[in-house]
Design brief:
single chain, 190 residues, alpha/beta, Rossmann fold, 9 helices, 56% helix, binds adenosine monophosphate
Length: 190
């Protein structure tokens, strides 16, 4: 099964992806995590991506398409994967479809987590208030930019999947276990 977790920054895509990894054995393929690992490792790809990520802009399509393609061909993706934070542009979605078709696979479901902007902002503020390690792009200012990018470049990807009849929308403002339960019910229904 191949799933796309869709939604604005801070909607809970990562949280629900991790739960799906535990409960369904589907690896979480987060391009954001992969890019941060590349930054930590000091690779050229990481170095080239850092400034864009820090300011809340997207990295080029070719960059993420390259890393996702490589990652998807690892043996742990034999039964599928959860795509978290990818695709973020129509171009990425088109390439992902092509990549899956070439492997005799497809996206089964796109789970859209809907969360109001104000709630996303409150979540960032409470993460900051809670202390803990801080991501360079996890602050109210950069969130605004990331939301702009989301509505402009990423939200249209939903239309792409809607024409394929694959989108299921969930209220991402409900408590985490409730969202998990709703996702589980949807997956059991396909
Ligand atoms: P995330 O951890 O998914 O919120 O991603 C953090 C940042 O990594 C984003 O704000 C982008 O700068 C970059 N990024 C992650 N995934 C993608 C993607 N699919 N396309 C372009 N940029 C991405």
């Amino acid at each position: 099964m191949n799933l796309v977790l869709f939604g604005p920054p801070g909607a809970g895509k990562g949280t629900q992806s991790k739960i799906l990894t535990e409960t369904r054995g589907l690896p979480q393929l987060s391009t954001g995590d992969m890019l941060r690992a590349a930054i930590m490792a000091g690779t050229p790809l990481g170095l080239a991506s850092k400034a864009l990520m820090d300011k809340g802009a997207l990295v080029p399509d070719e960059t993420v398409i390259g890393i996702i393609g490589e990652r998807y061909d690892q043996p742990d993706c034999a039964k599928g994967a959860v795509f978290d934070g990818f695709p973020r542009t129509i171009a990425q979605a088109v390439v992902l479809d092509k990549m899956l078709v070439e492997r005799g696979r497809k996206i089964d479901l796109v789970l859209e987590l809907k969360v109001d902007d104000g709630v996303l902002l409150d979540r960032v503020k409470s993460r900051i208030a809670a202390g803990g390690p801080q991501r360079a792009d996890d602050n109210p200012e950069t969130l605004k930019k990331r939301l702009e990018v989301y509505y402009q470049s990423t939200a249209p990807v939903l239309g792409f999947y809607r024409t394929q009849g694959k989108v299921k929308t969930l209220d991402g403002m409900k408590p985490i276990p409730e969202v998990t339960q709703q996702i589980s019910a949807l997956l059991d229904g396909i």
